[in-house]
Design brief:
It is a single chain. By secondary structure, this protein is of the alpha/beta class. It has a single domain, classed as NAD(P)-binding Rossmann-like Domain (Rossmann fold, 3-Layer(aba) Sandwich). The chain is built from 9 helices and 12 strands. The longest helix has 21 residues. The N and C termini lie far apart (44 Å).
Length: 281
Amino acid sequence: MDKKNILITGVKGFIGSNLFMYLKKKGYKVFGVSKRLEYELKKIKNVDFIIHCAGSGTARLGNKENYKKNYLPTRSIVKFCKKKKKKPTIIFMSSYSIYGFIKSSSAKENDLPMPISSYAKTKKLCEDLLLKHNKSNKINIKILRLSSIYGNGIKKQIFFDACKKISQKQSTFFGTGNEIRDWLHISDLCDFISKILRNPKNRYKIINCGYGKGYKVKHVIKQIKKNLKSNLKIKFIKQKTTEPKKLLININLAKSFNWRPKINLNKGIKKYTNWFKENND
């Protein structure tokens, strides 16, 4: 197989750093940028793929911060690609949060996005920009609408927060615990991206990427509590929120790449809590 040159943006982040190591081991020529994206892009001559992982990675930031961290780097990448005679393929890490309130059992790629949070809205802006230049400048794109990505090393979101709280004997969590999300292990995401790299000419531009099954937040917390051998009684505090109660995606399109997620949630939680215990004593 001809090993391509791959640029990863946000290479120091959770997804970017894991992907960098994974593709290096596969024998790809991989290099990464983290900060000062527009400046760093000026130094780059030949690249076949840009895997765009840079972004805020959280729904808690305000409009200006999300625009700065999500949209502006994407705009810089598009400007870079427009100037190139041989245009790189852009693989963009979007989010299943852009679907908003999902009315069906699970969201499909052709469902109308109804983003609610500032984070989701800027992800949609990025998608729109990429789709526009895919048509006008013939830039090949792949938009991956990712579910909640987790794995060893992540230090944010429910996995880290729950491990930290339970280990510190803090029993209170916000929400009802009945919120349903789809969690995909980082190793399964890396495996899927490697499938995309082998088949970049595939006609699909937008692809859902998740485990394909939803679990309640309280299930995750219960498993973490069990693995940490805690007897803590968990309490949930309901709060007013615009967050969807359910985020589930249909992954049939992703499966057409001869890909299946391998790590089920309980196994993934076990791996994560073991990592947490080793690194947070």
